[in-house]
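Our example pasted here:


***
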Amino acid sequence: MANKILYICQEITPYLPETEGSTLCRQLTQAMQERGNEIRSFMPRYGCINERRHQLHEVIRLSGMNLIIDDNDHQLIIKVASIPSARVQIYFIDNDDYFARKAVLTDPETGEGFADNDERAIFFARGVLETVKKLRWVPTVVHCHGWFSAVAPVYLKRVFADDPIFRDVKVVVSLYGDTLPGKLDSSMAQKIAGEGVSDENLALLNDPSYENLCRFVLEYVDGVVVASNEVPANILEMARKSGKPMLEYQAPEAADFFDNYNRFYEQIQ
């Protein structure tokens, strides 16, 4: 059975340098499409992405909505580009307040994470889900990659749980070795609560470390993928104890690498 898979990605190559996560997101998108699945892939339009070189253009019919985060209005801009060799489209979530700076998640001058990374992650998650609603496209699986996508599962299971677009969706999260630099803003839980999420698990985000963010995410997913050999041991143990279906780490060069992903999506239905 073919699936409709929504990929919510922190990074995708060639728009950002090759890393374990950006390469996997690029390859998965193509491989799942080639296996007969319908795909939509999203990532943030970080300011360091060269729009001219990669031929990004705004999708006017999807842009223009305002999202309120922590009582402030932020305009949602949607851009799109194609990876010609893969016949794959990538959607970009953009906003001048959050993504105009010429960097990804850390300040190049200090090496520390941006102070508003929590709000940027909230805006990204909301932006993706609101855009999918506008597309009137009903995914069967949502697969989140990278800690920057970590807010999406709670929205799917709490805010959008009764929406016909997302009502029956299964949520998967991939764990990587690329952990959060430091902690996110301590008011993150309060900001998510302001989005209409009332949940006792939000208390975990009063201390938004990488470990607590992972613990939080695991409450809202239907399956877990170990996407790296570098996942911290405490996070791996936590994921295994969650009792959620897991696709354990496998080497990318394995002959059945992508088929195992395809089977895993079927397994969690």
